[in-house]
Amino acid sequence: DVVRSLRSILPQGDPFHEVGAESALINAQIEKGFTGKKGKGGFYATIKGEEKALDLKTGKWRARVKEIPQLALDGEKHGVKALLKDSGQLGEFAWRVLARILMYSASLIPEVTQSPQDIDDAMKLGYNWIKGPFELIDEIGSAVFAARLEADGFYVPEFLRETADRNEAFYKVDGKVLKVRHGNGKYRAVKLPKGVVRFHMMRRTLKPVKQNSSASLYHLEGGERLVEFHSKANALNADSMKTVRAAAKDPGVGIIVHNDGQHFSAGVNLERFLQFIDAGDWAGMDKFLHDFQKAVEAMLYCDAPVVGAPSGLSIGGGFEVLAHCDHVVAHANSVMGLVEALVGVVPAGGGVKETYWRWYQRTGDWEKAAWNMFNQIGYGQTGSSPDLSARLAYFEPKRDTQVMNRDRLVEAACKEIRKLGRNYKPRQKPQFKLAGAKAYDEMVAFLEKGKAKGWFFPHDVTVASQIAWIVTGGHDTLPDAAKGRLSEKAMYAREREAFIRLAKTPETRARIVGMLGGAGVPRN
User: Fold this and answer.
1) N or C: which end of the chain has fewer CB within 10 A?
2) In this structure, are residues 57 and 40 in contact, taking their beta carbons and an 8 Å threshold?
3) 3-state SS of 470-502?
4) Spatial distance between the Cα atoms of 24 and 37, rounded to a whole number of angstroms
5) Cβ contact 238:320 at 8 Å
6) pLDDT digits 0-9 by tens, 164-212
7) What does DSSP assign to residue 92?
8) DSSP secondary structure, 115-159, as one string
9) Is 331 strand, coil or helix?
10) Residues 253 and 306: beta-carbon distance below 8 Å
11) Nearest to residue 115, comparing CAs of 191, 197, 205?
């Protein structure tokens, strides 16, 4: 229906008509009820209990291949240029799609608008693109892109040809101002509404104070420090946490943890843990976890407020970073939670500790807090919005805030830093009480009953039992000093101990391998 609407309103000379004709295949699928997820399926569907994919040549169903091509992984990691370097079928497909879209975008200048930013903004705001068409052309190189269009017989729009002939970019930094090339050839400052900050644009005018392949630290004009994660899926590793600790050492008026990625962070890098497991390097694994804990602890107790400003997935280790912030300004689409149990381990970056503490603050009862924490972390529950995360104590409505427009995250975070900065003092370190052996036995009995009924796999019971052990103490004989209260340091240590205990099991290794893509991951 969208395609038919566009065909009816666009002039006959518009290039859209070359690709916007009726599709017999799509029409046939619609007639059969394969209209997408709300129908029987779409190009993918579950047929008689098996996942199938539609063969585009025959129109028949075949087995779905879930393996992600290496080219797609390279493109995600290294950007659009990695896709276009490939000379195979997938690289050719990527080129033909991008060539048409980017060429069409360039043809709209100056007829539709004088500024490429208008088109880039439309695609980012309307279709959730991370980079707009002209930003992508800049990444490829205007001259390289125009030359390949010409070599492959595509039309080269005049505005693109002029820019390519001068070997210029559509966006460039002039002093501390980011400018964009308009249809008349002149560069003008990028225009954004008051209060809107797109950090991927702002950072082009900034020099990082500290930078590595996984994260960068910037000093903003107001004295704020901004930590940006930028690894693949913003997965966290040792370099990410070094940057967090560097910010905590010199926090300025406050620290903002934010990035413009599709997701804030999908958690800690599982590939690193698999390397530790296959090497039997338990001391190395413990050090990695300890360094992560020390980084979030340094952030939590530094001399200035820390505000997390996430959008998209904020799960696993990514959420543990947020859990150690003084305040969270969340985009309304933020998904928060601790999902480590799904891959056979426990949160070990302070996630169990902080969730347990939050539930105690809500209930005033250590045993109730332990059960609430046990149930949600054991099931790997997440909140698909800040409001739903609030039900799990992952978002605190009385403390945290949310915004509808992700372009307002940085502005809102700066405001919170100024508000919190008045007479700021970090929280007093909490003392914890373990829920005790009785609670532990009840939790294990619940798990065993669930296993007998087919609710849980045997390893689910093993994993959840370790979660229970962290906050109850199990049947451990604790030192006299610990029988009453445990320090935060002791809780961190319990998380690490439980994590490593699980990492030594073959079932956990198998789950991690499965999450990373299947049996193709070798054991050293």
Assistant:
1) N
2) no
3) HHHCCCCCCCHHHHHCECHHHHHHHHHHHHHHH
4) 20
5) no
6) 999 999 999 999 999 999 999 999 999 999 999 999 999 999 999 999 9
7) H
8) -HHHHHHHHHHHH--SS-HHHHHHHH-HHHHHHHHHHTT----HH
9) strand
10) no
11) 191
